[in-house]
Amino acid sequence: MGAMGGISEMPQVTEGPGTADSEALATLHRVFGYEAFRGEQEEIIEHVVAGGDALVLMPTGGGKSLCYQIPALVRAGTGVVISPLIALMQDQVDALRALGVRAGFVNSTQDFDERRLVEAEFLAGELDLLYLAPERLRLDTTLDLLSRGKISVFAIDEAHCVSQWGHDFRPDYLALSLLGERWPDVPRIALTATATRATHQEITQRLNLPTARHFVASFDRPNIQYRIVPKADPKKQLLAFLREEHAGDAGIVYCLSRNSVERTAEFLTANGIEAVPYHAGLDARVRAAHQSRFLREEGLVVVATIAFGMGIDKPDVRFVAHLDLPKSIEGYYQETGRAGRDGLASTAWMAYGLNDVIQQRKLIQSGEGDEAFRRRAAAHVDAMLALCETAQCRRGQLLVYFDQAPDAAGCGNCDTCLTPPETWDGTIAAQKALSTVVRLQRERGQKFGAVQIVDILLGKRTGKVIQFDHDQLSVFGIGTDLTETEWRGVIRQLLAQGLLAVEGEYGTLALTEASGTVLRREREVPLRKEPKKPAAARTRSGGSGGGKAKAAAAELPDELLPAFEALRAWRAEQAREQGVPPYIIFNDATLRGIVTLKPASVGDLGTVSGVGEKKLAMYGEGVLTVLASLGGPAPAAGDSQDADWPEPDEEPEPDEWI
Ligand code: ADP
Ligand code: ZN
């Protein structure tokens, strides 16, 4: 299609031994302990190792990091990673060091001596990877440092930060175009999980990457279950969702305002779910502490504004919940994408209601920016609303938004696929609602918000109805066939379909050009039925019952749970001793691999995905000892792989945190 210009779309992976069937693959096995490359990884790596520039668009959890880490390991010199995530650099470097990779970072959190040490390592050629914040490239001292060392590749992470339209714009990213001018022979790879064509083209232009090869991965995240429920009592709905489906799990809850962030975190804590707030209004130290806890503890919930989350590579975030409507599908997709990086089942859950629609439309109208800006913002909200109101597969709608082909039969893992919504002919209801708006305006010259419209339809003699004599209108009480919730659903859907508009600072309702076609009976208005009991949660196979790691472990057969829990307890102890997040030791997916294989020897253990050379050397014996203590095969035995593992006498000690 035209808009992509000369971009080569997702070339097929070539079969057979290529050049990468060599050092790159050997590095993947040895350092990372992974069996095979995923998707486009191999081709991207081959291209960059050969010196080519690349733009990589891959969803969160798709495996972007390897695309620059392996070239940095294979090519001579140090890979320089530009990342805006200063607060996460330490963890990123720790994770690499745990794999035996020589990594370091330079940023403003370091003191002089620490920085000098890293710089010396870089100059001595002793670093495989060096992480830098973009603002450092404005400093001549940094450019001078870089020009005195040998650079294998520049990786520009979170490359969408260069986009002025995006929500993560960082002015310092604009200066990154100089990298190509100063180091024309060093390949550059820009990576992002933001997928629209507009952002895509902006990155190419602003980073000056005209000849970069574009790699566009599938944006599908099949392990994430997408669900959008009508909002009734959002905090209670959230609580029920967490209790029934995600007890003991780590997750993120997004709210629009700082105030609701604070209140929601307090509410969850008061109800026995450990939650901490995160927003830009908190002291930087408090924010850093909360982020650090989220990464290091296993079952913490962070309630946050969108200030939280970019670059958080915690693999075991089991759910992302939205209590307010995000401003765009891009934002929603980025945020929900933080769930389930480890590929295990996760949920993206959102509660959404009439007030969200009104609120967002009002924000745009009363917000800053010129007409073009508003139109763009309105189009983003409209796309988001269409996703909320669709009776089709949610995943399909998301993929289409990102110009990718959905599965025609539906995904089978979103709410509309799992429980297809009923629709009903809402034409008459729509006419009643629109007529009420018309009467108020024509007969009284008045405009009112949704609450008053619904009260009039229901024939309620509220104070405000009596005050304005609205019980004298001919439409008063014409809507007693529907409940208040149903009427709010009708109005919400009329807004989403563009058959009603929101105006002014009070969010009053007004007709649109399209309203006439409904009033003149020129079209029908199909509507989604409001579920009788909103947010009735379906539990997954795990059934009820709380406890740590229930959901993460839910896909394991019961008899393997004791081993899984024992390994988690062992991991927590290792993490605490080293002061690193537990997933840096081994992530959940790797622990699951271990308990499923039941390795009886260090050699067996090394075949598990995620167990590389360094980790095998460091933890091999420890893991086998834990397994043996459960009554399974002793490390030395080696011949009784299929022995049953009896239940331990007691539950393992509950994990203890910081
Ligand atoms: P992204 O940066 O795109 O969000 P990551 O690079 O963090 O994704 O990768 C997500 C997860 O998948 C990580 O736990 C990573 O180690 C793992 N992973 C990446 N590539 C592979 C692979 N080829 N085989 C197995 N696991 C992989
Ligand atoms: Zn679906």
UniProtKB/TrEMBL annotation:
This is DNA helicase RecQ. It comes from the Bacteria. GO terms for molecular function: 3'-5' DNA helicase activity; ATP binding; DNA binding; four-way junction helicase activity; hydrolase activity; metal ion binding. Residues 641-658 have a biased composition (Acidic residues). The keyword Cell membrane does not apply. Residues 234-388 form the Helicase C-terminal domain. Residues 523-533 have a biased composition (Basic and acidic residues). The keyword Plastid does not apply. Pfam families: DEAD (PF00270), Helicase_C (PF00271), HRDC (PF00570), RecQ_Zn_bind (PF16124), RQC (PF09382). It comes from Streptomyces yokosukanensis. Residues 557-637 form the HRDC domain. It is an enzyme of class 5 (isomerase). GO terms for cellular component: bacterial nucleoid; cytoplasm; replisome. One of its GO terms (biological process) is DNA replication. Its cofactor is Zn(2+); Mg(2+).
